[in-house]
Specification:
159 residues; alpha/beta; three-stranded antiparallel beta sheet; 30% helix; globular
Length: 159
C-alpha cells in the first residue's frame, strides 16, 4: 500500500483468496473468519506461475510472502512470519477479521452446513441438543463454538 488512500474494505462475502505455501496457519484463521481461503498446498500448487494462474482463474486475491510474486500477480504481500502479525497486516489492508457463525471448514475450506437438531454427531463433537454444530460436507469435520472459537475471537478482537 502506498499513499494516503484508505485500503479497500474486504469482507468474507466479497473477497476470495488463495494463500501461498508459507501461509497455511493464516488460511485457517481466514476460514474461521468466513473467508473462502484456498491454500496452495491443499491444491497441490507450489510454483509461482501456477499459483498466479489459480488466483486468476478463480477470481481470487493472491496473498503471499513472496514480494516478487505479489508484484507480478497483482497480489497482496504479507511480510510477517508470525500469524498474529500477518493478521494485523491484513487488518490494515482492509480485511474484516471477526467471527460470527462458522461458515468455512478450517481444515479443507468447504462451506459448512448446520447439523439438524435431531442428527447424531461424532464422538468428539457435542450433541446437537447441547450446542449448535456445523459439519463440512467435503471432509466430514464438525465444528462448534467451544474454547478454541473463544480464543480465536479474542485474538481477532485484539488486532
Amino acid at each position: 500500500m502506498s499513499g494516503d488512500a484508505d485500503p479497500p474494505e474486504r469482507t468474507p462475502a466479497d473477497t476470495a483468496v488463495v494463500l501461498d505455501a508459507m501461509l497455511g496457519t493464516l488460511a485457517t484463521y481466514l476460514r474461521m473468519a468466513g473467508y473462502d481461503a484456498a491454500y496452495a498446498l491443499d491444491r497441490g500448487v507450489e510454483a509461482d506461475d501456477a499459483l498466479a494462474d489459480l488466483a486468476d482463474a478463480e477470481g481470487r486475491l493472491l496473498v503471499t510472502r513472496d514480494a516478487e510474486l505479489a508484484a507480478s500477480a497483482d497480489g497482496l504481500l504479507v511480510e510477517s512470519r508470525e500469524v498474529i502479525d500477518q493478521l494485523r497486516e491484513l487488518s490494515k489492508a482492509g480485511f474484516e477479521l471477526a467471527l460470527s457463525e462458522p461458515a468455512r471448514c478450517s481444515k479443507c475450506n468447504g462451506a459448512l452446513v448446520e447439523v439438524d437438531a435431531d442428527a447424531r454427531t461424532p464422538s468428539y463433537a457435542p450433541e446437537t441438543g447441547a450446542r449448535r454444530v456445523w459439519r463440512c460436507p467435503s471432509c466430514g469435520q464438525c465444528f462448534w463454538k467451544g474454547s478454541h472459537w473463544v480464543d480465536v475471537a479474542e485474538t481477532l478482537s485484539g488486532l
